Amino acid sequence: MAETQLQHAREGTVTSAMERVAERENVDPEFVREQVAEGQAVIPANHHHDALDAMIIGREFSTKVNANIGASETTSDLEEELEKLHTAVHYGADTVMDLSTGGGDLDRIRQANIDHSPVPVGTVPLYEARRQVDDVADLSHELLLDVIEKQAEQGVDYMTIHAGILMEHLPKTDGRKTGIVSRGGSIMAQWMEERGMQNPLYAKFEEICDIFAEHDVTFSLGDSLRPGSLADAGDEAQYAELDTLGELTQVAWDYGVQVMVEGPGHVPMDMVAEQVERQQRVCDGAPFYVLGPLVTDIAPGYDHITSAIGAAIAAQAGAAMLCYVTPKEHLGLPEREDVRDGLASYRIAAHAADVGQGQPGARDWDDALSEARYNFDWRRQFDLALDPERAQAYHDQTLPGDNYKDARFCSMCGVEFCSMRIDQDARDAGDMDELDDETDLDASPAAETNVPPVGTHEEADVPDQSEYIDLGDRVHADDD
Ligand code: SF4
């Protein structure tokens, strides 16, 4: 009997989740079914996640963004964790990963996250298993399977499984500049070295498939050997693991389990598209879920930017989901504003790629905002902005009054030099129509529009731009 979205799709059934996804993506439900059936897209939707609003991850659909949340040794309060979930969803996360590694009752926190989350919840079960033993070497096959099963029963929609890192890959990391930077990867490597045995998540992969098939948990095959620096990008270790991930993708599909594959990391700009194309080839088009990648290593404190650049290129090349990076990356635990900055950066990257790829309806947003901007409809601009609160706060910092909400300028260029106002006045006056090759631009009426427009204010009141901040009602849009 079909249990997973993949199995249903293969049988030709359009599930209610597929219907919902089609509605959200503005596409035909049959197209959704085909993409899922072919493994080109996943709908992470655990049977036990009642609060979920189904979504889809695949290169033919809008690019998704994941935000990491979770308790650490220093933050562990349930309320605080739910606040993190709320913040992530509020600022546009399409999925969240609960990466709790310490503190508090993690079972309770995970359950609360699932109960309250309208977006898919992902986890790394290896972290919880690691917490239950004193030493990495004490991790047993049974414990790993037990933790995975318990989390599947709780309603986790997708899990990062570090099954691709094998004993034979480890020597390939010896010459690396930054070794193994994946947390799960470093744990598995240490386990294999100390126990002298093959990766237990690889050894038990088929049993994990059985659990995932029963609850419809989606694999997120972890890239344990992702490069942690530009110097290590595209090395033998990374690509050897990718080949294993390609094999595991086929195994999971044989079990009717949905799969996405995780990717780097730190990659120079000129290699990003090539890496996406390689993953798509090796993993037969399974959705690629990338962390960044950071395209330079030199900017701690700004890694939401270094990585969003790589993320935009990766998404344009076919990556389906982007795992956000905050400004605190490599430096500390992100706080609310860091989450906000990270998500904004990644939603920009995702949307830019959607526009570039011609995703249905993506450009409409840009066009609507541009129209509001040219019409000086400030309220609509704020509403349409990716981060409305920040857009309005920045505008109102210098021009706070209500009378500036339809002003034909802002404090950036000021009244006299507002190019859009100048342009509109010229067009309204019909001056633009008269321009041709013979026009003497210096003497043209358009040049004369570089003064405050009639009706904006009395010439005598034209202030020095440096005074705008304190002028209050002296500068206003209309003289009403
Ligand atoms: S003043 Fe400059 S930035 Fe502001 S609306 Fe006019 S053209 Fe745009």
From TrEMBL:
Pathway: Cofactor biosynthesis; thiamine diphosphate biosynthesis. Substrate binds at N68, M97, Y127, H162, S182, R183, G184, D223, S224, L225, R226, E262, Y289. Residues 431-441 have a biased composition (Acidic residues). Its cofactor is [4Fe-4S] cluster. The keyword Zinc applies. Residues 471-480 have a biased composition (Basic and acidic residues). Its EC number is 4.1.99.17. One of its GO terms (molecular function) is 4 iron, 4 sulfur cluster binding. Transmembrane segments: none annotated. Zn(2+) binds at H266, H330. This is Phosphomethylpyrimidine synthase. The gene is thiC.
